[in-house]
Amino acid sequence: MDVKDIIKEENLVYSKSKVLTDTIMHYCPGCTHGVVHKVIAEVIEELGIQDKTIGVSPVGCAVFAYNYLDIDWQEAAHGRAPALATAINRLYPDKYVFTYQGDGDLASIGTAEIIHACNRGENIVVIFINNGIYGMTGGQMAPTTLIDMPTSTTPYGRKVDLNGYPLKITDLVAQLPGTCFVTRHSAHTPAAVRKLKKAVTKAFQNTRRKKGVSFIEVVSTCNSGWKLSPVESNNWMVEHMFPYYPLGDMKDE
Amino acid sequence: MAELKLMKGNEAIAEAAIRCGCDGYFGYPITPQSEIMETLMARQPWDETGMVVLQAESEVASINMVYGGAACGKRAMTSSSSPGISLMQEGITYIAGSELPCLIVNVVRGGPGLGTIQPAQSDYFQAVKGGGHGDYKLIVLAPASVQEMYDFVDLAFELAFKYRNPAMILSDGVIGQMMEKVQIGDYKPRLTDEEVVKRYGSWATTGKPSTRERNIITSLDLDANSQELFNLKLLKKYAEIEKNEIRFEEISCTDAEYLLVAYGSSSRICQKTVDLAREKGIKVGLLRPITLYPYPYGAIQKLVPQLKGILAVEMSAGQMVEDVRLAVNGKVPVLHYGRMGGVIPTPNEVLKVLEDKLIKG
By C-alpha distance, which of A26, A96, A99, A19 is closest to A58? Predict the structure, then answer.
């Protein structure tokens, strides 16, 4: 049997989302970004909102997100994506706006912007990738780096007396009345990806209903930064990240 | 219908924004320019024209909101005063690097640091020579009256969109706070997305229809050669701006033997100095740069052969004077007179320097 005999219309159970471009991703093998991009692309296609969606990409590994999703994009300065998204939302109240931000971007340099965008109840979706490390700059400490976790700027592990505590920013934004849906997910198993996709779908539907900020944290891996194989990274994440950053909805109004 | 109104400079900025079809204002309070946002909030233009007005959490957020709005092809603006403009420098260089049109109004106060809330002209270098990182230029307009505060809002947006480049109105606490009569213009309607495409091309992020490629607004290019190509493209644009957009005013220059060069509120003071000097028989003229970038080097050069000396007057330690010296290239003496920290020079003070330092000196 030839491969051509297998690839037939009636045998197709899966196809790449049309919202995903053919550009080869620059992400490391095992990185969570690619899966999350795929989920967002599928949701945009399924909701039929490709022509009404504007993405705001961050500074960090996902700086090139605009190469992979076939929608209009704005590239923000480090941490400022929620400010850009605020203006887009105010000027285009009937469009769909999402920011895609890492932990350094959202929880460190951009804390003011994210807190105030959430507090104003901007009608936007926030996708927050938390892998506890700065990926693009080479594995430095992030605000979400766990205690004793080694990074290139905490080579002996993060110490509270020197670096303070890992920041649970998602718990913080859940306290703000401007957020309508605050949830924490992962993307390391097919089941987790399906759950994540449900959440992303709900988030964009919340935009349609003008409910305010939908905030989705995705607890993620960074094999290169963590210096572990993809499989080891997933195991490390389950063992160490999940206890501190437990999965589940914090708010769903 | 055009009408005449008595207004503060800051109020004129707000009124002009509403009437010129501005889509969004994003700002943060700071003295001496808070009346701009206060006037806008009191006027509630969202009911009248649909213009968005938002008080941001910081100047950093304001300028990035301007980025977001400008990237949608909208007329987006912010205003602040010196310390706030310093905070905006990151956003301004990103806007310049992404080739976005927008308006930034700086009602300058004395510095450095928290400085004073009194007027100054000590942000010239920041506005004209860079401010943020990288090779970029702002189109910089310097109003000298409340009327020009009003007129330059629309002009700045027109130039910004023509060149896809951020524009700045570099004012100061005098012009911002003083009241003068202003000829108010008719309402220009806000442009629709279709009109923006027709006039300026299809670069804005409006949501990707199936009929075009996706639009990406970014200032990132990791490839050295293609980043350099982009830098060269910017230089070409700046050369165009320098060719087409130089604006200045000459007062009593025809027979002038001495020249005062001053912009903004200093030029108003120097205008009086010219009158006082002429009464004494001193042949002095005033050249007032209206665009600080592009700077009217040529206009100064043209006058040099008839001149015995030039006095640059600024409320700073001497910033614009460097551009005067560049234009003159050592051919005649160029002196600087400035007051700082919020002190405003008087016409007689300037006259005394002209007589004692430039003519007798």
Answer: A99
| Contacts of A88 by beta carbon, 8 Å cutoff, 6+ apart | A54, A56, A74, A95, A97, B68, B69, B71, B72, B205
pLDDT, tens digit (0-9, with 9 covering 90-100), for A155-194 = 999 999 999 999 999 999 999 999 999 999 999 999 999 9
A48 reaches B (C-beta below 8 A): no
- Superfamily of segment(s) A18-252: Thiamin diphosphate (ThDP)-binding fold, Pyr/PP domains (3.40.50.970)
| Chain B residue at shortest CA distance from A20 | B214
Looking at the complex, report in whole angstroms how far the Cα of residue B90 sits from the nearest Cα belonging to chain A.
Answer: 8
Under an 8 A CB cutoff, do A73 and B216 touch?
A: yes
Distance between CA atoms of B218 and A15, rounded to whole angstroms?
30
* Fold of domain B249-359: Rossmann fold (3.40.50)
Rounded Cα distance between A221 and A233, Å, is 6
Q: Which residues of B63-93 are buried (b: 16+ CB within 10 A; e: fewer)?
A: bbbbbbbbbbbbbbbbbbbbebbbbbbbbbb
DSSP string, A68-88: TB-SEEEEPPTT-HHHHHHHH
Which tens digit of pLDDT belongs to each residue from A44-55? Answer: 999 999 999 999
Provide the ipTM. Answer: 0.96
Q: Where exactly are the structural domains of chain B?
A: 3-193, 249-359
Residues in A closer than 8 angstroms to B57, CB to CB, are: 112-113, 115-116
Mark yes or no for CB contact A92/B207 under 8 Å.
yes
- Are both B3-193 and B249-359 of the same fold? yes
The yes/no answer on whether domain B3-193 falls in CATH 3.30.390.10 is no
pTM score of the predicted model: 0.97
- CA-based nearest residue in chain B for residue A90: B52
